[in-house]
Write a structure and sequence with these properties.
The structure holds two protein chains of two kinds.
Chain A (H helix, E strand, L loop, with lengths): L4 H28 L7 H18 L4 H29 L4 H12 L4 H8 L25 H6 L3 H19 L1 H11 L1 H6 L4 H27 L11 H11 L4 H23 L6 H19 L2 H6 L16
Helix pairs in contact in A: 1-7, 1-10, 1-11, 1-12, 2-3, 2-4, 2-5, 2-10, 2-11, 3-4, 3-10, 7-8, 11-12, 11-13, 12-13
Chain B lengths: L4 E12 L2 E12 L3 E5 L6 H8 L7 E6 L2 E3 L4 H6 L2 E4 L11 H6 L11 H14 L15 H14 L4 E5 L7 H16 L3 E6 L2 H7 L2 E6 L2 E7 L5 H9 L15 E15 L5 E12 L2 E5 L6 H8 L7 E6 L2 E2 L5 H7 L1 E4 L3 H5 L6 H5 L10 E2 L2 E2 L1 H14 L16 H14 L4 E5 L7 H16 L3 E5 L3 H7 L2 E6 L2 E7 L5 H8 L3 H5 L1
Parallel strand pairs in B: 3-8, 3-9, 6-7, 7-8, 13-20, 13-21, 16-19, 19-20
Antiparallel strand pairs in B: 1-2, 1-4, 4-5, 9-10, 11-12, 11-14, 14-15, 17-18, 21-22
Chain lengths: ~325, ~500
């Protein structure tokens, strides 16, 4: 029963959707503060290569290595995002250009590959990957086993994170102020909220989560480093933020939908379906384009709840 | 009680690159009073209030709050000290509820939001000051008057003792303004103090206890409202006497010789909802027809439809009997429609471009200014120089970017361009909004002059005084309909005010 095509696809949708979910949740925070982050792909790759490096060099118990590599990936992603925040918030650069530069600078042909070369990350496979757990010994239980009890620790963390993010955004004072900063920084500033601090903090937080997403590729999905490992997952994550209407719960739904599309190729090939692999691999990106076209109309922006000040640098009115 | 000093500002100087916005301002505020701050645009009112609310730091001078010197480095400092500002452009988060906006940024709000308790507290506060507003409503659902109440609630919730209101009535109907005045009285009765920034003499006389007049960044004087009058205030404000009479026309209007005919006009607003419902209206040769109404009742849509910037859903627009093609600005221009849009720097002109380029924007296709698709720069420059001179535009050169000019000169450039095409009809939307008294006078003179020369003018304005002093007939718009057309000499403020507020039955019965 657990081998039925539907269960396998659903389980792998969660698996492949996990890094998307992390990166997209980061995007929700960043965009809610009014900063557009097109550098997600770059931040994921930096996180991925740093996580892989850490995993190869940090000793101790297997659990400690995993934990430490995730921390290193978060730190690296956060550092990259700090650069983005500096460009966008302090220097008030065009956020689209700043984000694209970060992806180009850190991406497949940039810093992440350079680090991989210098640190010789690609030379060895990751020997201590993030493994799927057998929670409460229920991994083989019919239906619920593969869906709920047989995931990596990061998947469970992401579920907690979705709930916590929703609570933070909509039930706490800080969340209310964060949304105010993204909607109307003038108002927030007039009410004594530190716009710069909020934007820096949530941009860096977004980068840290993107870093985890990247590490999930190098430590769980592929378990080794390949240049350009995330293959555009960062772009899907950016689309997911919009697809999820800037809400953590809907972002989860979107992430698993795209996760299913991403896993479809592998799953179907394993079952010797005769479908062009290239076409299947292209599916998530075709969907991304469709989603972006659908939601980027003026109507959508008004109705979907995009933060009104998204992508607009904040300047106090001075003469 | 009323004689204790709440705020004392002495010798306040604030310089900006190239401008001294405050040049030794003296300002004294007594507790429990409504103190009007009166002055033209650029007199330094906004700078002074921005200093008091901590947005700017003064270069010189001192501020004392309840006798103790204070120095604010941010709006938060001022708020914590009990000084709150109600901005002219509301500082509200549109997608938030009323209560969420009120508690935003308040240090006393608990980390976990208790929505029900917050709603209850906001409701009580609103009731205490006689303000009708639903704490759970989203800001975008509210009328402008209601949004202003939220702004006031916000500063009251913060416990402000001194409230600064920047041109609060600019966006209100007369009835809403009266309600605001009652709220202000309720606040001063509790010992709170109100600074009321305005350039409207009537309301300053109606609402304030004392008045401080600023001119050119200096204090002209502070007077008791009971011992002064409008004429004195006006001369303090502009430094000369200003006439408050109906404009005398050289050539009488010929309402029967129709130049602009609007028939059963309907149109959508930007969100696709019906904004105009069967508007029928005529403007005669040499006639000024004023459209009175609170902003957002379809005036902008009406102007845009006539100017060919918006499609009609029903009806037609014709100039001298010829029907204009709907939604074609070029057809409207060719038909003789000139348009002074309300947002002159965005819709009216290309702000970053030079005066001469802007002046040529409507006529660059003529063989005078271009040949074979190439511009004739010398001809453009000569034409611009002539127009700049004729319309008295104060600009360093014709190559100066329009956005660098003052508001009055921007409007002169726009008028010069519109008149230069030899129009038959002029649609002027809030042509004097945001201008200082001198510029207002000169723009009004131009309009009257043009009407004397046979132009039909449709004057859309929220300034009732302006319409009453210029128009031959007054049409009142409410919710996309013309609810009444009244000859100007038979019109009175009360009736029009009521019609603008939608109380048609009371007004006519």
């Amino acid at each position: 029963m657990n081998n039925s095509l539907l269960i396998v696809i659903l389980a792998s949708a969660i698996f492949y959707g996990t890094p998307l979910l992390f990166a997209a949740l980061g995007g929700v925070f960043t965009e809610r503060s009014g900063v557009l982050n097109l550098g997600v792909e770059g931040m994921m790759l930096i996180g991925g290569v740093s996580g892989a490096w850490a995993s190869q060099h940090i000793g101790g118990s297997a659990w400690f290595t995993v934990f430490a590599s995730i921390l290193v990936a978060m730190f690296a992603g956060g550092l990259t995002a700090l650069l983005h925040a500096f460009l966008c918030v302090t220097l008030k650069a065009n956020q689209t250009v700043a984000g694209l530069s970060i992806t180009i600078f850190a991406g497949a042909l940039g810093l992440s590959s350079y680090f991989a070369n210098v640190w010789k990350v690609a030379a060895h496979p990751v020997t201590r990957p993030i493994r799927k757990l057998d929670v409460l010994g229920l991994a083989d239980a019919p239906v619920v086993g593969p869906l709920l009890f047989n995931h990596t620790i990061l998947t469970y963390v992401s579920w907690v994170l979705v709930a916590a993010s929703s609570f933070y955004l909509f039930r706490t004072k800080t969340g209310l102020q964060l949304r105010a900063v993204g909607e109307s920084p003038q108002t927030a500033d007039a009410m004594g909220i530190n716009v710069v601090k909020y934007r820096y903090f949530h941009t860096v937080l977004g980068g840290m989560l993107a870093g985890i997403g990247g590490a999930f590729y190098s430590l769980a999905i592929v378990s080794t480093w390949v240049d350009g490992l995330t293959k555009g997952a960062g772009w899907i994550a950016i689309a997911l933020v919009i697809f999820g209407f800037w809400r953590p719960d809907l972002t989860l739904v979107g992430a698993y939908l795209f996760g299913a599309l991403q896993s479809l190729g592998t799953t179907l090939k394993a079952r010797s379906f005769h479908i062009s692999g290239d076409l299947l691999d292209a599916l998530p990106f075709i969907m991304t384009i469709v989603v972006l076209v659908l939601v980027s109309s003026r109507f959508a922006h008004k109705r979907l709840g995009a933060p009104a000040a998204l992508g607009v640098p904040y300047e106090r009115e001075e003469r | 009680m009323t004689n204790t000093i709440a705020v004392q500002m002495s010798g306040v100087v604030k310089r900006f690159p190239g401008v001294v916005a405050n040049d030794g301002v003296e300002f004294e505020l007594r507790r429990g009073e409504v103190h009007a701050l009166l002055g033209e645009n650029g007199a330094g009112k906004s700078t002074l209030s921005n200093i008091l609310t901590g947005l700017y730091r003064p270069d010189e001078g001192t501020i004392e709050l309840n006798g103790a010197p204070v120095s604010f480095s941010s709006p938060r400092d001022a708020l914590n000290a009990g000084i709150g500002m109600v901005h002219q452009h509301f500082r509200l988060v549109e997608t938030f509820s009323v209560a969420e906006n009120v508690v935003l940024g308040n240090p006393d709000t608990a980390f976990l939001l208790d929505t029900a308790a917050i709603n209850e507290r906001v409701k009580e506060l609103a009731a205490r000051y006689d303000m009708a507003v639903d704490p759970e409503a989203r800001i975008w659902q509210l009328s402008v008057g209601e949004q202003q109440r939220v702004e006031i609630l916000k500063v009251l919730y913060r416990g402000a003792q001194v409230l600064i209101l920047d041109e609060p009535t600019a966006v209100l109907t007369p009835i809403e303004a009266d309600a605001l005045f009652r709220t202000l009285r309720a606040m001063t009765a509790e010992g709170r103090t109100v600074i009321f920034i305005s350039h409207k003499l009537d309301e300053v006389m109606a609402v304030s206890d004392r008045i401080t007049v600023l001119r050119g960044g200096r204090t002209v004087g502070t007077v008791d409202t009971s011992t002064t009058n409008k004429r004195d205030l006006a001369s303090m404000m502009v430094g000369r006497n200003v006439e408050f009479t109906r404009v005398q026309r050289k050539t009488p209007a010929q309402a029967n010789d129709v130049v602009l005919h609007v028939e059963n006009l309907g149109a959508h607003d930007d969100r696709g909802r019906d904004a105009l419902h069967g508007i029928t209206l005529t403007v005669g040769r040499g006639e000024i027809v004023g459209i009175a109404g609170v902003a957002g009742n379809g005036q902008r849509e009406l102007a845009e439809v006539i100017a060919g910037m918006r499609h009609t859903t029903t009806g037609s627009v014709s100039v001298e009997g010829k029907i204009l093609q709907s939604g074609k600005a070029r057809a409207a221009i060719a038909g003789g429609v000139a348009h002074v849009p309300e947002d002159r720097l965005h819709t009216g002109l290309a702000a970053g471009h030079s005066v001469e380029d802007n002046l040529a924007l409507k006529s660059y296709r003529s063989s005078l200014l271009s040949r074979f698709g190439l511009l004739r720069r010398q001809a453009m420059r000569d034409g611009a120089t002539e127009l700049v001179e004729r319309y008295d535009v104060k600009t360093p050169s014709t190559q100066t970017a329009v956005r660098l000019l003052s508001g009055g000169n921007v409007q002169k450039v726009l008028l010069a361009r519109e008149f230069s095409t030899g129009p038959k009809v002029l649609i002027a939307a809030s042509p004097t909004r945001g201008l200082d008294v001198g510029a207002i006078e000169s723009v009004r003179e131009r309009l009257v002059e043009a009407a004397d020369g046979g132009l039909g003018v449709l004057l859309i304005s929220e300034d009732l005084d302006e319409i009453m002093s210029l128009a031959d007939r007054i049409a009142v718009m409410y919710e996309g309909r013309i609810v009444a057309v009244i000859p100007a000499d038979k019109a009175d403020r009360e009736t029009i005010g009521l019609l603008m507020g939608g109380s048609q039955l009371e007004a006519t019965s």
